[in-house]
Amino acid sequence: MLINVEDARRAARRRLPKIFFDYIEGGSGAERTLAANEADFARWNLRQRVLNDVSNRDLSTNVLGTQQPLPFMLGPVGFLGLYAADGEIAAARAAHMEGVPFALSSFSIASIGRLRAETAGPLHFQLYVLNDPTIRDEFIEQALAAGVTTLFLTVDVAVTGSRERDIRNGFRAVTRITPRLALSMIRRPRWCLDLMRGGMPQCGAVAHRPEFGHGALAQAGNLARRIETRLSWADVAWLRKRWPHRLVLKGVLSVEDALAAREAGVDAIVVSNHGGRQLDDAPSTIAMLPEIVEALGGSLEVLVDGGFRRGTDIVKALALGASGVLLGRAYVYGLAADGEDGVRRVIRHLAEEIDTSLALMGLTSIAELRRRGHEALRERT
Ligand SMILES: Cc1cc2nc3c(=O)[nH]c(=O)nc-3n(C[C@H](O)[C@H](O)[C@H](O)COP(=O)(O)O)c2cc1C
Ligand SMILES: CCCCCCC(=O)C(=O)O
């Protein structure tokens, strides 16, 4: 039974070949930041308050200029179409059915055009700048043509973190299906039948470029190697001029960078350490959130991601000043476990937990929670 995110995680592990489950689950180095992202939520308690009328509750809130029924969205995660058939489309549909935005990763199986053609709701796009400006420009043009209004520029992957699970499994070194890989896939027959029905998955953005190789795994390795290492604040300024809609910087984890992001004219930042997949021993996002919010003093919208597995985690981030939360692994487990339905169940579970927590905290809305701020919490000493 899929009641919470942990149930979805276990089901995803049963369903996926190890190489993919490990890719989703893993972090970099000793995985200390990965662990801290989840563990540090325990540094905060929620204040229980009683005898308030909480019969009418409202979870809606404004995130990135749009009123949405829930205070979170599905963040960009690469290669969703490898974890479930048409994974990007399934996740986007689930998001739209539940009224939350979906952000498509640059590194996706479904192209932006296909996603737009097959889904109707609001669409965000996440940009990885590759060391080939023609690909960067293609991404921007496709995003504009698809009616994307919010672009997340990911800036915490100057190089890819040392992900030891992937190194062991040869994730980024796959150029062809070896007997070992074939065996690990055949051991997961449901996944195999589902995924291979449409032929060998390809990464939508580079399927037409033979230099990226054939098949999503070879393309993934080549894409990762082509991420622009020299990306700088000048590129942010360039993109600010080029992109006419909302621009969000994803991967800010220090006060200095948050202030520089505001200076560069972005519309919002995502406090993120990439789910503990990049700089190991970087602090958790929930630990950094308060000082970044305080330094900005309301002058820039702040979103956050990293380790959110419970509705109570989301409540804490909102009380600490985030306008919204991006889900990562939490929804991907649901997707791998049971496609669109699995994602919807994860979204609903988190929404129910937020709703219950608010009521037991004596609060009736996200607006009230955000007004109450730190006073809705108690820091554990
Ligand atoms: C399997 C996987 C792939 C990811 N791919 C991308 C990506 O393509 N672009 C991006 O900006 N972030 C990517 N991320 C990072 C997420 O957007 C997010 O920052 C992170 O997952 C949050 O941590 P959480 O999964 O613990 O919630 C990826 C994360 C995972 C787990
Ligand atoms: C194959 C590694 C690609 C790194 C970029 C995708 C991503 O953001 C992540 O895996 O994390």
From TrEMBL:
InterPro entries (UniProt xref): Aldolase_TIM (IPR013785), Alpha-hydoxy_acid_DH_FMN (IPR012133), FMN-dep_DH (IPR000262), FMN_HAD (IPR037396), FMN_hydac_DH_AS (IPR008259)
Q: What cofactors does this protein use?
A: FMN
Q: Which residues form the FMN hydroxy acid dehydrogenase domain?
A: 1-379
- Provide this UniProt record's keywords sorted from A to Z: Flavoprotein, FMN, Oxidoreductase
Signal peptide region: none
**PANTHER family xref list:** 2-HYDROXYACID OXIDASE 1, S -2-HYDROXY-ACID OXIDASE-RELATED
Name of this chain's protein: Alpha-hydroxy-acid oxidizing protein
- Which organism was this protein described from? Ancylobacter crimeensis
